[in-house]
Amino acid sequence: MARLTDFSASEQKHHLDKIRDLPDFGGTPFAAGPLLRDRRVAIVTTSGVHVRGDRPFEIGATDYRVIPGETPAGDLIMSHSSVNFDRSGFQEDINVVFPLGRLRELKADGAIGAVSDFHYAFMGAAPIRALEPKARELAALLKKDRVDAVLLTPV
Q1: Are 77 and 54 in contact (CB under 8 A)?
Q2: Nearest to 66 by CA among 134, 148, 20, 14
Q3: What does the domain layout of the chain look like in residue ranges?
Q4: In this structure, are strands 149-153 and 40-45 parallel, antiparallel, or unpaired?
């Protein structure tokens, strides 16, 4: 993993400016809900993963890809674009960035109630404020699919 000190001064400034640009959401109150063993769980990732044959992510993409819950791991590919992105973990085990296999195991063990029919992937190298319209759209899709817990995998 790259460290901030590994970058040139201009690259350091670029990454720090991205953090300063994050919106202030204020305090988020606790939201009660069903026990985890009764929740329907979906994955939302910024890994740039998508189904083989779907259009790849482009640099700066702010849209997302829908990944059907029954998609085999071998049918998922990554088109994340960043010079600082290490794909070795993904190549060894997709569950590092998209833990659908682990969710299926949790469901089989009774730890969660259900695995969502659909999961979603963004490419994480996009300007954070530009993602908000699609994030709101995605929230509506999650609600429609009766998802009440989301596993976020920021990559």
Answers
A1: no
A2: 134
A3: 36-153
A4: parallel
**pLDDT tens digits, residue range 83-126?**
566 666 666 788 888 999 999 999 999 999 999 999 999 987 77
Could you read off the pLDDT of 16-58 as tens digits, one per residue?
Answer: 887 777 777 777 766 778 999 999 999 999 888 999 999 999 8
What is the per-residue DSSP string for 115-152? E-SEEEE-BTTS-GGGGHHHHHHHHHHHHHTT--EEEE
Give me the residues paired with residue 148 across strands: none
Sign of CA dihedral 18, 122, 93, 142: positive
Is the CB of residue 73 less than 8 Å from the CB of residue 94? yes
Q: How many Cβ atoms from other residues are within 10 Å of residue 79's Cβ?
A: 17
